[in-house]
Amino acid sequence: MMYSKLAFRNIRRSLRDYIIYFVTLTLTAALMYSFLALGFSPDILAMTENMSMLTTGILMLSVLVALLSSFVVGYAIRFMLGQRKKEFAAYELMGMEVKSVRNLFLAENSIIGGAAFLLGSLLGTALSGLLNQVVQNIFEVPHRYQVLFSLRALGMTLFFFVLMYGFGMLRAAKVIRCRKVIELLYDNQKNEGVGYQPLYRSVLTGLLSLAAMVAGVILLKKALHIQTNEAMLYWGGACLLILAGVYELHRKVPVLLYQLVKRNPHRKYRGENLFFLGQIGRRIQSSGRTMAVVAILLTISLAAMFVGLTMGAGYKANMEAYYPYDAGVAIDAPLTKDSMDSVRSFVEKRCEVEDSVTYYLYAVPNETIEALSLSDYNHLREILGLSPVSMNNNEFLVHCDTWNYMDGIRQGLEQKPEITLNGWTLTPAETPILTEPMEQYQMAGTKGYVLVLPDEVASQLSGEKIRLAMKLKDNGYPELKSELKQFLNSGKWQPDIQPGQELPERVTIGVTVKAWGVANSLTGFTTISFCGLYLSIIFIILSCAVLAFEQLSAIDQNRKNYAVIDRLGVSGHRQASLIRKELSTVFLIPLFFPIVLTVLLIVGTQLFFGEAILQEGLVLFYGLVTILLFCAIYLTYFGATIFLFKRVVLQLGKGLQ
Q1: pLDDT for res 451
Q2: For residue 292, what is the enclosing H or E element?
């Protein structure tokens, strides 16, 4: 009972040390619970058959969040131990056993952790309702705000929270048990070794870091044009080079700037700059690695948030391109067109077919490209609501709705403007390339493009693949896909083979239904967007918390430094201004390159992928959302750190006089 009263008293007295710690724990618990509640929501899981992938993604990320948060909790606990070393030494000198001191500290942290978990769960319950509304809005389901409480989500959040908190507490118990009284009393009076590399070495390292980042960007650009698994090696190498460059730049550039400024006597001795430079020099020396690691985490966070939001929203915007036909059947076999009549009849018994076309993808001799006849091509355009095209009997055109093949096709047409097929010499039509969405990896081609030929020329080629595209009343329904697949694979459907043709060893059958595709594409969009948002926000919160604790851990030394300039006559207003300037510099250092790289990522995405996304301005919009959301979190921690720092340093600094 005595220790519990002492624990509550210590919490009240050390409230300033615990505020950022408590806020970080509360936000982590709130985000963890809200996303888990979303993943376990029966209403969300019932929307599509693949929605379980959202639950799986959130669970996997929660494990990662718990692991990363445990390190931040341990870091925070070490910070609080550092702030209260003398207090614990006094307890031991008064006769309190080390075990009792440890239990007292663990009791205080258990109270704080429990309160943070309860408050975080309450906030998470409210937030989960908002997330639920967002998902229902994505699926265009009628919705209203309602508080979501999930016992399963609460249990999983508690499990991850205890796992996260337990590791930090174990580290704290080990530190208290191993520290001697003399170390607790005089640990903060140890001399720090201060030393910097020669200026030329800092410049050389900075240039090498920039070169590594440029090389990473070049590898990224090259990876965009590789369609094989080799692209993953380029992506991995590019990310490693960029992150290594970010780390080294944040280690060397502040040191380089600090050394250059100190070489300028006019600027060095102006006003309080000598004091300010001394403060920044100590910060760079003691917190340089921390700021570099924070810069890497912020780079990953901003990239994950932007890519997640943009990919998801872009996928949703382009769904009409991925699923242009209400229903389609693709069979890579030389069947007769009559074979597809029974397939159409099967569909008509379930929903009205307003229009349909059965057509071949023709094999072009000595070429990898496939061909469509002009009449079939125009029928597909009619189904899609596009105007027909016309060309002469000695012309051809290429349809390509896949942006990354466009340059290659243009170059090919310039190098070889004529093609000869079965005695016919064809030249490009007036508009040689058309780009409307026609689904060219299955229905209107299989490689992302198709050659459109006059009917007379196409009829002399071999129709090795057959397709059926249908326009349905009210766009059909999702279950039609499984019903169609079951029919095609049953013995009820008996297709006929073209005369003189043979079935390949392996027949590929593909079925697309727009209603099913839209629902499950939205599932992919939701999973990518929400998992990216979850991970990036947690990363930003943890990064800001580490940076804040790193600054607050230097309060004791800074309190003495500011007390000195107070005795020298520097006004309280000027001291507050110096604190803002000092902390602004420290918070800006790990922020500069992540923001620059994010802006470059946004601009690059707009340049390379902007045309491929059908919704104009989507990339720039979500880039702005990413930066604004990040700034809101970052500035909140920055403001809280300045508030605590000024309150302690300025008020307690005067008390030392």
Answers
A1: 93
A2: helix 273-317
Q: Report residue 177 as tokens.
A: 């048990």
> Are 143 and 523 spatial neighbours (Cβ–Cβ below 8 Å)?
no
Residue with tokens 């890579």: 332
CB 153 within 8 A of CB 536: no
Q: Whole-angstrom distance between the N-terminal and C-terminal Cα of the chain? A: 38
- Alpha-carbon span 330 to 333, nearest angstrom: 9
How does DSSP classify residue 192? P
Tell me which amino acid residue 25 is.
L
At 621 the three-state DSSP class reads helix
Give the Cα separation of 120 and 117 in Å (integer).
Answer: 5
Q: Which residue has the tokens 């000092």?
A: 582
Produce one character per residue of 577-586: b if its CB has 16 or more CB atoms within 10 Å, e if not.
ebbeebbebb
The CA distance from 368 to 377, in Å, is: 19
452 DSSP β-pair partners: 372, 397
Listed residue (283, 279, 225, 284) closest to 254, CA to CA: 284
Distance of alpha carbon 322 from alpha carbon 377, whole angstroms: 18
- Decide if pLDDT at 655 tops 50: no
**Segments of 547-589 assigned E as strands:** none
Distance (Å, rounded) from C-alpha 580 to C-alpha 639? 10
Looking at the DSSP bridge assignments, the partners of residue 461 are none
- pTM for the model stands at 0.70
Any residues with CB less than 8 A from the CB of 604 and at least 6 apart, and which?
none
Query: Looking at the predicted structure, is the pLDDT value of residue 652 above 60?
Result: no
CA angle, residues 403, 417, 392, in degrees to nearest 5:
95
